[in-house]
Amino acid sequence: MTMMPVTLEQIARVTGGTFVGDEGEKHTRITGVEKDNRQIEKGNLFVCIQGERVDGHSFAQAAFAAGAACCLAEKPVEGGPYVLVDSTLEAIKALAAYYRSLFSIPVVGIIGSVGKTTAKEMTAAVLGEKFRVLKTEGNLNNELGVPLMLLKLRQEHTAAVIEMGISDFGEMSRLGAMVRPTAVVMTTIGYCHLENLGDLDGVLRAKSEVFAFMDGGTAVVNGDDEKLAAMDPGREKITFGIGPDNDYRAENVTAQGTACVELDVAYPKGRFHVSVPAFGSHIPLAVLPAAAIGHRLGMTDEEIRRGILNYAVVGGRAHVIDTGYIRILDDCYNANPNSVTAALLSLSALSGRKVAILGDMKELGRDSESFHREIGVLAGKCGVDALICCGDEANSYYKGLIASGSEILAWHFPMKDALLSVLPRLIRKGDNVLVKASHSMHFEEITRELEKLK
Fold first, then answer.
1. Where do the H-state alpha helices sit in 297-415?
2. Helix, strand, or coil here: 436?
3. pLDDT of 33-84, one tens digit each?
4. How far apart are CA 291 and CA 294, in angstroms?
5. Residue 416: band (very low, low, confident or very high) from pLDDT cuts 50, 70, 90
6. Residue 314 above 80 pLDDT?
7. Would you give the DSSP letter of residue 26?
8. Kind and range of the H or E element at 378?
9. Structure confidence at residue 259 (pLDDT)
């Protein structure tokens, strides 16, 4: 696919940088943008990022050897032309904002505390039935990842779905200035990044910064969320959820084990049934906004239904692994009170013995202990058979469970190594095992060990 024309001279002008190289090279067009020299293709712009452990400037010559046309750098590099800027991070954001302005296509911004990636994947799957879609890859949803994704837009793309993640005030404004979404999906306002954002009102205020960077457009929001239901985005607002007052409603929701979720999508002009090849109580809340966006962009019920059938789970997020010995609900990419609650309720709906392995939920601020205790209480009440807590803060899960009077099996391990050493003795053949923690806990190690059990 072909990148919109962008020359080295334009890059220097847009970023406020200085082009260093032969005069005749100024009119060279780049073919793409990369920050990893191992991914460089002929004609790419290589962005030298100064990281905590690695300095991208050290790989400039390797990038040129691989075919890079130019480097974006904060200091002189050897091997080819470069654009010298004060900050490559700020420069790449400026370049992305300019490049985004070259496209007149639907751009859907996906924001919220929980469920962004599922909503992004579902929306992209739906739109893929009618459009050539660019969607956010992996975890490229921050102030470096978003510009890199926008710079992957190509002339052939007819729509984009961009995930936007934040942890502090002002970040959404900087992301919004680049993405300029034509529609926004807001999944929920939850207890995330409270160390910076304070409370739910702060979370809502920070995420709502995006609306200043929309020219009209539509806000598709979770109407079951009290904060979002009451919010006035200053533009068309479409609500979705389970509640009867929502514009898009999930009705007759049934889970077929871990194989699929079936539901009726009811909306003002009709309804249709869909079977989603995924597991989890959160799935309907991804289907509904995807359907709303699809309808807004002229898609039929049948096109939307076919798109949903193409949905695929992203690794580490409610990924079901059937080893033949146990069934693992691998949901260890991240965790906060909202997502852990949803995961426990999904686990409790399964038949067979149910084991929850829960780690610390990070960045919850001064009320972190009480949040963990409340999850422990829930685990004791929702039908889980055993709770395995791992981590310093996870001790409060255990305390909450014990204080609730629940008699389910429970253990607390301060260290992951201690848990791993006894894990085979805690798990039985046929168990359903949920693995859930904040990403920094690296619970994927536990998932790997569970996969070895036999």
1. 301-309, 337-348, 368-381, 395-403
2. strand
3. 999 999 999 999 999 998 888 899 999 999 999 999 999 999 999 999 999 9
4. 5
5. very high
6. no
7. G
8. helix 368-381
9. 74
The amino acid occupying position 105 is I
Those residues with Cβ within 8 angstroms of residue 227's Cβ, 6 or more apart along the chain or in another chain: 189, 200, 201, 203, 204
Indicate the residue type of 281. Answer: S
Query: Where does 382-427 have alpha helices with state H?
Result: 395-403, 416-426
> Strands 319-322 and 327-330, how do they pair?
antiparallel
3-state SS track over 134-168 = EECCCCCCCCCHHHHHHCCCCCCCCEEEEECCCCC
| For residues 98-104, average pLDDT | 97
For residues 238 and 311, give the distance between their C-alpha atoms in angstroms, rounded to a whole number.
Answer: 22
Give the residues across from 389 on adjacent strands: 358, 412
Greatest extent of the chain over all pairs of C-alpha atoms, in Å: 77
Between strands 354-359 and 386-390, the pairing is parallel
Phi, psi dihedrals of residue 373, rounded to the nearest 5°? -60, -40
Other beta carbons within 10 Å of 312: 10
Minimal CA–CA distance to 3: which of 107, 125, 103? 103
Nearest-Å Rg of the Cα atoms of the chain is: 23
Burial 292-308 (b: 16+ CB within 10 A, else e): bbbbbbebebebbbbbb
pLDDT, position 434: 95
What's at 331, amino acid-wise? D
Residue 426, number of CB atoms within 10 A of its CB: 16
The dihedral built from the CA positions of residue 396, 397, 398 and 400, taken in this order, carries a sign that is positive
Name the DSSP class of 53. S
| CA distances in angstroms from 197 to 184, 437, 438, listed in the order given | 21, 21, 18
**pLDDT level of residue 316 (50, 70, 90 thresholds):** very low
* C-beta separation of 306 from 337 below 8 A: no
Q: Containing H/E element for 355?
A: strand 354-359
| Amino acid symbol at 25 | E
Whole-structure pTM value: 0.80
| Structural contact between residues 314 and 121, judged by C-beta atoms closer than 8 angstroms | yes
SS3 270: strand
- Strand order, beta sheet including 18-20: 18-20, 82-84, 70-73, 44-47, 32-34
In 33-144, alpha helices (H) = 60-65, 88-100, 116-127
Is the Cβ–Cβ distance between 153 and 160 less than 8 Å? yes
CB 421 within 8 A of CB 445: no
Q: Which residues pair with 265 in a beta bridge?
A: 250, 272
DSSP state of 301: H
Task: Give 198: exposed, middle or buried? Use CB within 10 Å, 0-12, 13-18, 19+.
Answer: middle
Dihedral-angle region of residue 207 (phi above 0 means left; psi in -120 to 50 means alpha; beta otherwise)? alpha
